[in-house]
Write a structure and sequence with these properties.
- The protein has about 290 residues and is α+β, with helices and mostly antiparallel strands.
- The protein folds into two domains: about 5-160, 2-Layer Sandwich (Fructose-1,6-Bisphosphatase, Chain A, domain 1), CATH 3.30.540; about 170-280, 3-Layer(aba) Sandwich (D-Maltodextrin-Binding Protein, domain 2), CATH 3.40.190.80.
- About 35% of the residues lie in helices and about 25% in strands.
- It has seven helices and 15 strands.
- The chain has helices at about 10-30, 50-70, 100-105, 185-195, 210-220, 230-245, 270-280, and strands at about 40, 50, 75, 80, 90-95, 110-115, 125-135, 140-145, 150, 160, 175, 200-205, 225, 245-250, 260-265.
- Strands 4-3-5-6-7-8-9-10 form an eight-stranded mixed sheet, with helices on both faces. Strands 12-11-13-15-14 form a five-stranded mixed sheet, with helices on both faces. Strands 1-2 form a two-stranded antiparallel ribbon.
- Helix 1 (about 10-30) runs antiparallel to helix 2 and helix 5 runs parallel beside helix 6 (about 230-245).
- The radius of gyration is 18 Å and the shape is globular.
- The relative contact order is 0.14.
- Bound molecules: L-MYO-inositol-1-phosphate.
- The site of L-MYO-inositol-1-phosphate has 14 residues, from strand 5.
- It catalyses: a myo-inositol phosphate + H2O = myo-inositol + phosphate.
């Protein structure tokens, strides 16, 4: 499908409906049993957990999208990739920030994006519409290609358009980051952190890439970087940030992706990329 046949407004509405339905399921589960955060398994390491709720939410997202858009592809953190015929693929993280959900920390999100291109290849996909919904706070970010980015606060107050102003210089920047689940990678990320920390205002480790990037779009942090995130962690929030006037990059001219994601407004983006490049932040310890 060409961009000409795509309806960002209608797709944005569907993304929000589906993400909110996932949030409703999470809230209903916690209302029945506030301790309903049981871990159902682990993935890449003993700390990379998946909960029964992750799996239940992704099933719901897939059911709703298959019913509404049967020709589209689906790519989710828990159930993998099912290519479609339409040229569009829905990229799903049922709970981004699973560890926060498990521990009752209100920083996790249902992330729903629809993209053109191949979401399995860094730099080969472009988001068309997106929703990032925090079920704990009610905060809901939406974006559509060319339609801007919006934040609906969780307290019912009026939604607002997100527009980034000029960013601070690097030394005044509040920078969010995250860490992987493998000990070797975490050791490398700790080394990079000791190089970044003296050069910025401060660091925040929130625990959800989608909320980190939405935080840049909202202005609650000035920049975000992380090595090792997956497309489902960021696909929706990437559109929120770019539609709010921000930008994303990898290092040394590479596209944002698994090696490194950096998100900020220019020229802070370029300055942080330079520091991370000097620290070889897109590689692991040998
Ligand atoms: C999380 C990311 C976060 C990262 C965590 C984890 P998950 O995704 O959103 O940025 O630092 O280690 O990968 O696993 O909760 O979907």
């Amino acid at each position: 499908m060409s961009s000409a046949g795509v309806d960002p407004a209608g797709l944005r509405e569907l993304a929000e409906q589906v993400a909110r339905a996932g949030g409703d399921l999470i809230r209903a589960g916690l209302a029945e049993d506030p301790d309903a955060r049981e871990v159902s398994g682990t993935k890449s390491s003993s700390t990379d957990i998946v909960t029964a709720m992750d799996q239940a939410v992704e099933r719901l997202l897939r059911e709703r999208l298959a019913e509404a858009r049967p020709a589209d592809g689906l790519l989710g953190e828990e159930a993998g990739y099912s290519p479609g015929e339409s040229g569009l693929t829905w990229v799903l993280d049922p709970i981004d920030g699973t560890v926060n959900y498990r521990y009752g920390i209100d920083a996790y999100a249902v992330s729903v994006a629809v993209v053109e291109g191949d979401p399995t290849v860094d730099g080969a996909w472009q988001p068309v519409a997106a929703c990032v919904h925090n079920p704990a706070t009610g905060e809901t970010w939406t974006a559509g290609r060319g339609l801007g980015a919006q934040l609906q606060p969780g307290d019912g107050s009026a939604p607002r358009e997100l527009k980034l102003g000029p960013p601070p210089e690097l030394g005044q920047a509040l920078v969010a980051t995250g860490f992987g689940y493998a000990a070797t990678r975490r050791a490398g990320q700790a080394r990079v952190l000791t190089g970044v920390l003296p050069q910025v205002r401060d660091i925040r480790r929130i625990g959800s890439a989608s909320l980190d990037l939405c935080g840049v779009a909202t202005g609650t942090v000035d920049a975000y970087y992380e090595r090792g995130v997956n497309v489902w962690d960021i696909a929706a929030a990437v559109l929120v940030l770019t539609e709010a006037g921000g930008a994303l990059a990898g290092l040394r001219g590479a596209p944002a992706g698994g090696a490194m994601v950096v998100g900020a407004a220019s020229p802070l983006l370029e300055g942080l990329c330079d520091v991370l490049g000097q620290l070889d932040a897109d590689s692991d310890p040998t």
